[in-house]
Amino acid sequence: IDFADTKDKVLVFFKLRPEVITDQNLHNNILVSSMLESPINSLYHAVRQVFAPMLLKDQEWSRNFDPKLQNLLSELEAGLGIVLRRSDTNLSKLKFKEDDTRAPVSQYEKIIAPVEQKIAGKLKNYISEIQDSPQQLLQAFLKYEELVKRPTISKELMLERETLLARLMDSVKDFRLDFENRCRGIPGDASGPLAGKNLSEVVNNIVWVRQLELKVDDTIKIAEALLSDLSGFRSFHRSAEDLLDQFKLYEQEQFDDWSRDIQSGLSDSKSDRLVILLREVRQLSALGFVIPAKIQQVANVAQKFCKQAIILKQVAHFYNSIDQQMIQSQRPMMLQSALAFEQIIKNSKAGSGGKSHITWDNPKELEGYIQKLQNAAERLATENRKLRKWHTTFCEKGFQASDMHAWKQHWNHQLYKALEHQYQMGLEALNENLPEINIDLIYKQGRLQFKPPFEEIRAKYYREMKRFISIPNQFKGVGEAGDESIFSIMIDRNASGFLTIFSKAEDLFRRLSAVLHQHEEWIVIGQVDMEALVEKHLSTVHDWEKNFKALKIKGKEVERLPSAVKVDCLNINCNPVKTVIDDLIQKLFDMLVLSLKKSIQAHLHEIDTFVTEALEVLTIMPQSVEEIGNANLQYSKLQERKPE
After folding, report:
1. Which of 294, 490, 553, 632 has most Cβ atoms within 10 angstroms of its Cβ?
2. How many angstroms separate the CA atoms of 181 and 540, rounded?
3. Which residue ranges does the record assign to the Dynein heavy chain tail domain (predicted)?
């Protein structure tokens, strides 16, 4: 302010707090004082509203201000007030109301305009350096947002604000393109939504799109604050709002799909799924979604059973890892306990007769099932600990594996006796007890055959037979890997039984061939020319009647043919050839019908020809004795030609 001209109106501005001046805090944060009426008046208001509150009441300043000076300041304020009152100055009218500040504010605007021009110039230079970087450009406008809102600066930065609006429009387009490319993908994939930690797919997708919403919201807020006067603002705002609507629709679709999937699978009682459902319900509720009543009810039940779910998970971990805790040689000793534990897991049935699976809806039955599982797991774990302890004790007492040699030999001999007995029984009925071989009886290339072929069946049977014979070579007993086995001599000791099993094998294949021969008569008609056969042998009505009756009888006999034949360990499926036989009989039937039609048509043609020729002869009226004789001769010939 230029003080040289005393005629100028002098204004003094006090900024009460270290804050950025805005339209909202202008009247509360700036005290405007004038020398128009009296310097005493100005001094009084400065002391009363600026210095006294700061030096007498503010803790930071009053603590370090001399008390004597504080008293003097208080006395100054009081004295100035008395002087003003004596001079009948109405102090209350000296407070600036909002309407009274318009002139000072206008004056303030004029005074600060050159400063704003300089600021605008510096901002233009700064923005020109970073305008190629959208992120830096955005950060610059955010940093100096309050300055850019000033009318003068906003007008000066018109081009820069246009650039910012273009960048924001590009950002919205990028958000839209990114969303459209990822919204249908799998979270975490290159073409899917970005993946967060410990989030299910539906929650992850909604959180991802919410993050995009926040980014678009931020761009809208920035544009509304700084760019609302620009011509392209409306187009930008409409595009951004449309994108937000698209995000909201995607959110709702994700939630609706999740609701449908969950409600269609509410009978799933797996604890892991319920734990995930509980987490999803909690997270979706936090995101503001209203959970359907059925799902909320299940989630409430799951909340009750959360403890049981954790126990079940621990039991499952125990079940999957117990084999690693067992000593290899002790596993057979724990077989019964392990099978009992496994049986409880597999037969998770509830109710009478065990018809329904245990679900989370019945706390009592669930608690009982978990208790059974825990008891079985504890028995198995206790037995394992006991066996491991004994093993450790034996090792600590110096007990060596070599000390077990005689004991192992004893048990190997006992095992040998039991195995040989079973081996001999198996050899006697080997053809019945080998793994079953499935065979199809088919009609192919004009002949009956097996599928797989006969030789392949034979080779497979002998491979299985050889595997059974060599079982003693594979049996190790309770000896160590390097010990000589006593079981391999079992094969030589029972070699006399091999003649029997080979003899039975050949008999088995003879019976297999017989099955094929039993069906050969049925496919003979498929190996001849049916049409030529019918034309050769069928000429009278009796011929057709006899063949139609025979076909009907054969059709019933085919129905009685077995669909499957079992020859010891061979299962022969006869349905393929039965289907072929049915087709052949139907084909022969169609051929008989066709040949009968042809025969009838030929006979009708013969009759028609005879009638036509007879009418031509009989319509001639004889005029003489000679013609009468000739007519009688023609009549005799017609009688001879008359079709039967």
Report:
1. 490
2. 81
3. 105-347
CA distance 444 to 576: 10
pLDDT in tens, 550-581: 878 888 888 888 888 888 888 889 888 888 88
Closest C-alpha to 512, from 602, 572, 576, 594 = 572
Helices 102-130 & 134-143, crossing angle to 10 degrees? 160
**Contacts for 263 with CB less than 8 Å, ≥ 6 apart:** 292, 294, 295
Question: Beta 447-451 vs 30-34: how paired, if at all?
Answer: unpaired
pLDDT digit string, tens, across residues 113-140: 787 778 878 887 877 777 777 777 778 7
Residue pointed to by tokens 């779910």: 309
Kindly list the distances between the CA atom of residue 69 and the CA atoms of 16, 40, 64, 66, 76, in Å, as whole numbers in the listed order. Answer: 21, 20, 11, 5, 10
* Sites in the chain below the pLDDT cut of 70: 1-11, 17, 20, 23-29, 31-37, 85-105, 108-109, 266-272, 305, 348-361, 363, 398-404, 479-484, 638, 641-644
Place of tokens 């055959």: 449
Single-letter residue type at 268: D
Residue for token pair 């971990």: 317
- Rounded-to-integer distance, Cα 308 and Cα 319, Å: 16
Report yes or no: 101 and 27 within 8 Å, Cβ to Cβ. yes
Q: Quick one: CA dihedral 49, 52, 54, 59, positive or negative?
A: negative
CB 482 within 8 A of CB 411: no
- Residue 453 tokens read as 């072929």
